Amino acid sequence: MSASAPRPAVSVLGLGLMGTALASAFLKAGHPVTVWNRSHAKTGPLAAQGATPAAKAADAVAASDLVVVCLLDNGSVREVFETLGGRVAGKTLANLTNGTPQQARELAAWAAEHGARYLDGGIMAVPHMIAGPHAYVFYSGDQEAFETYEPAFAALGGARFTGTDPGFAAVHDLALLTGMYGMYMGVLQAFALARTENIPAAGLAGPLTEWIGAMLTGIGQDAEAIDSGEHLTDVSSIAVNRAAIPNFTATFRAQGLTTAFFEPLQELLDRAAEDGHEADGLSRLVDLLGT
Ligand code: FVH
């Protein structure tokens, strides 16, 4: 977008922590912004920044061709969409609410039935990161709509189109958040163990951060193994990890902590070993995660 081109108007539905950050970023980038929230009081701070508050979702939708939606969940989105009905015709709905691929496909079908273009999105940022260098959003769905509004989406951070299947952004979002939740669960267990021996969390934070950072450098190698099916390792085998896990369960039990975190991992390692994969790396376990 050239410096002199007018910025398209954007309406933001949902002014929770994230919706407020999104609306504020659009305002700062020079877009005319209309905002709506179920509890009207939340429009106040954005109105003070220059946004136009709308009393009804339908009024906000009427104000802009691009409608960005960020609500608690896709059940709420569906409820709000149902109140709008045919008033979304001709609009682009960019729904950045966390949800499932199936919900995204259903909302895209609903939008198509009502004459709107639909983009689903997964926000890879927390509110204070929005518009900063590390924030980006996965999008999927109507490619023409994405290309039309890509310069506007740049106000939020990076914009990564993952495909025309509306469910793809949610798949990417959920995959990355799965990695995050796995990390958090591990970190919480680490703090819990340290606390049983009066090691303060602050004392563990530095080494834990360094260690997790070092381990993250292996993700690319794991990806190559998973895509090629070649899991033989010169780093750390199924056999050695299988031998180590009982040390964790024994220690956690002895310290009065639950061992539930380790049980699924132990079960996967046992199955991999029984299937003859003791010399493979942990990437092999991906093959055992089917239901
Ligand atoms: N906050 C974060 O760090 C994450 C980062 C990644 C993306 N997530 C997802 O973004 C969605 C919104 O999250 P949020 O943090 O803004 O959530 P809240 O501050 O709790 O705001 C929720 C808004 O949803 C409105 N709302 C709830 N139910 C309904 C409904 N039935 N009809 C209409 N609006 C509804 C709520 O309105 P109100 O309670 O203020 O009246 C808020 O505007 C979410 O999917 C995250 O997973 C955020």
Automatic annotation (TrEMBL):
InterPro entries: 6PGD_dom2, 6PGDH_NADP-bd, HIBADH-related, HIBADH-related_NP60_sf, NAD(P)-bd_dom_sf, RedAm-like_C. Residues 165-289 form the NADPH-dependent reductive aminase-like C-terminal domain. Belongs to the HIBADH-related family. Transmembrane segments: none annotated. Residues 10-158 form the 6-phosphogluconate dehydrogenase NADP-binding domain. Gene3D superfamilies: N-(1-d-carboxylethyl)-l-norvaline Dehydrogenase, domain 2, NAD(P)-binding Rossmann-like Domain. It comes from Streptomyces katsurahamanus. It comes from the Bacteria. Keywords: Oxidoreductase. This is NAD(P)-dependent oxidoreductase.
